[in-house]
Design a protein that fits this description.
By secondary structure, the chain is of the alpha+beta class. Helix content is about 25%, strand content about 35%. The chain has a seven-stranded antiparallel β-sheet, with helices on one face. A three-stranded antiparallel β-sheet has the order 1-2-12, with no helix packed on it. It has a two-stranded antiparallel sheet with strand order 6-7. A hairpin with a 4-residue loop joins strand 8 and strand 9. The longest helix has 22 residues. The protein starts with a helix and ends with a helix.
Amino acid sequence: MKPTSIVALLLCSVVCRANAILTAAPSTDDKYPVLSVNMGAGCAISVIDYYKGHLASGMIANASYWTEEPPISSTIEKFSIRFKCVDIQPSNGTAREYGASWDTRGKRWRPYYEDNAEQRLAAPVSRIYQVRSKNATGFLRTTDQINGDERQRVRFYSFCLFHENKAVCGDGQSKMLVEPKGDYLPYILRVLRSVSFIDSQSNRSSP
């Protein structure tokens, strides 16, 4: 056999074996359980349970994901995400209620302010994140508290995920501003990016 053929075979062996390993590697999300809940009002969702938590609905059109132990140490009372099922309103109505507006030119979500006075105050301490999951898209907005005792100020967040004519939205607190290492936001975003709407005939026909 020619030396060039031997080299080619050796290269193929290494490359092909590497490709096989890459192809066979499971998704890192596969090792986590999936929780689901039917919220009623036409919304049923699932989330990937990264943090050994619970997903349940205590009243129609509402659900919560929470954990017994938070993913990191924080003085925020507990790690939880509240979901509310809402009908999507036209002209950005639903998004604006939760602090965002769709920029048709830029093709992205932007912070929404009621007027110029609110924009002057809130814009320097607000940020918006684009959120995309398996079958939903939306945003999460954060705004830092700027009044009250500086030692007690928090970072608020609000979000919406849209799917067809429904959305799940919510709000809460992600951190104490004096506690930069106790920020729940990366963990909240991870859960939201795992949200999947479960489509069924019964969900579509629910009142």
